[in-house]
Structure formats: structure tokens, C-alpha cells
Design goal:
Layout (H helix, E strand, L loop, with lengths): L2 H8 L25 H5 L13 E2 L3 E4 L5 E4 L3 E5 L17 E9 L4 E7 L3 E8 L1 E6 L4 E5 L2 E6 L4 E7 L6 E8 L9 E6 L9 E6 L7 E2 L5 E7 L4 E5 L5 E9 L2 E3 L2 E3 L4 E4 L4 E6 L3 E9 L4
Parallel strand pairs: 14-15
Antiparallel strand pairs: 1-2, 2-21, 3-4, 4-5, 5-12, 6-11, 7-10, 7-12, 8-9, 8-11, 10-13, 14-16, 16-23, 17-22, 18-21, 18-23, 19-20, 19-22
Length: 294
Amino acid sequence: MKRSDFLKRTGLGILGSVIVAPVLVASESSPKPSTYDKLSEGLGFNHIPNTTSTVMKNMVIHRAETRGNANHGWLNSNHTFSFANYHNPERMHFGVLRVLNDDHVEGGMGFGTHPHNDMEIISIPLEGDLEHKDSMGNHGVIRQGDVQVMSAGSGIQHSEFNKNKDKAVKFLQIWLFPKVKGVKPRYDQMTFKPEDRHNSFQQILSPNADDEGVWIHQDAWFHLGNFDAGQKSAYALKKPSNGVYVFMISGEAKVNDQLLKSRDGLGVWDINALEIETMTDTEILLMEVPMHLG
């Protein structure tokens, strides 16, 4: 698809967000009005049984191959939840977890300047280097081992580009509804030591500025773990009313007796803890999030 066609087809109004063609120039348009209230109406489980999701009493499984896909040549993106041209009313969110995109951006390409508001945005590079610029004056590069957060709040504009011309960048783009709207926009990033999550879960995000990792305006906790084959581990929820969305970055593991493979997702609620047993060397992202807004 031509970039001009991509701009026309994927310009969307998800919370004032517009994906534009990969050109590093400032947008002349102001952020669109937020559709936050419409999207968050009735926020909860959103787990209606369908052919691409397995829904049980207190869990839902999203297999890797059932995700929405958008391949534009320079961008290949897999969407766990509805995004841009992929719209599935039965897969809009898991609690306040609204977007989980698995993005592959070719060398030198990226997302031009575009607006966001009233959303907590987290980027986790898996390979390569991602360059960031925003309307607050931040300019930097995030790499594998880094975690970036951006509270869009009352409104922010930013761009994201592959820093390298000769290799792709792969990263997870995650959006959460915030617990308060209209906050002052903020940006942060932090580098984490991979060895600190060998056969254990390393906290990378929380609601508290004084806690481990970066922080956001939501009662959410994220953990990354790198486990050898044959390891058993457990994760205890921080807040009983929360749920946990498990995203398998690589490998195979049983999570509460459900076998998950690379890029599968599992959402669980009404539990106190997760039990995890790895079948192979495995990298796991745990996202504990509120199941209801407010």
C-alpha cells in the first residue's frame, strides 16, 4: 500500500489519535476531540464468545494467529484488540487495556507527528532502536531493555521512527485508559537490566513514582520475565479487583494450566495469583490492570 493511501485509510479518531505518513514534519492540525467517553462506556470484560477467542468462566485466550493484521510494507502490525482498520466489537479491550500492538517497522521508516490525549501509552522495544520526538521537547532513542511511558493527558503530539536505516525495529505499543482525564502530559523512559528478570518477574511499571520502574496514571503493574525451560513461578496480584493479561513474547508455557505459545495472549480475572510453568525458554509480559474504570 502506498503511504498516501495508508494515511487516508488509517487516519482514525481513537482518543484523538491519528497515524500519519512517515515524514518528520510537525502536524498543522490540532488534536481531534477525544472520544474517550464513548470508548470507555461500559468498560469491563468485553468478552463475548466468538470464533477467534476462547472464553471460559474467568479467562479469555487470544491466539497469535487470530490477531488483526495490517501490513503496509514499511509497517507490519498485529493488533490484539481493535485498532485502525481492524475492528472487532468483541475484542475492544481487556479492562482498561485498550491497545496491544505488535509492531515491525522497516529501516528509516516510522510514524510522523500525530496527536494523542487522555491515554497512558507504553512502548517496549524488542529489537532495534526507536527514535522519539514530542511537543514537550523530548527527543531520544529507546532500545531493547528500555521501557517508555507517555501520559497524553490534556494533549500531546509526537513522532516515532526507526533510528536505523539498515534494520527493522520491533516493539510493543500498549495503551491504557487513565484513571483521571486531562492531566498534564508527561514523558519518561527507563533502562532495565535483563539479568534481573532471569527466572523471575521484574517490575517495570506501577502507579507509584517511588516504586520500581516507570509509573502511569492508572492502578496497573507490568512485569517482564525471562525463564529457562522447566521453571515454575507464581505471580500474586497487587490489587484483588484487577485482572492480568499475559502476553507471550516468545516460547511456550502453561499459565493456570492453559498452554500458551509465542505471541498468544491470556486474560484472567477473579483470581489472586497466576501459576506459570515454562515448557521452553520463555519471555513473558504480565500486565495487571483494573477491569473497570474508576
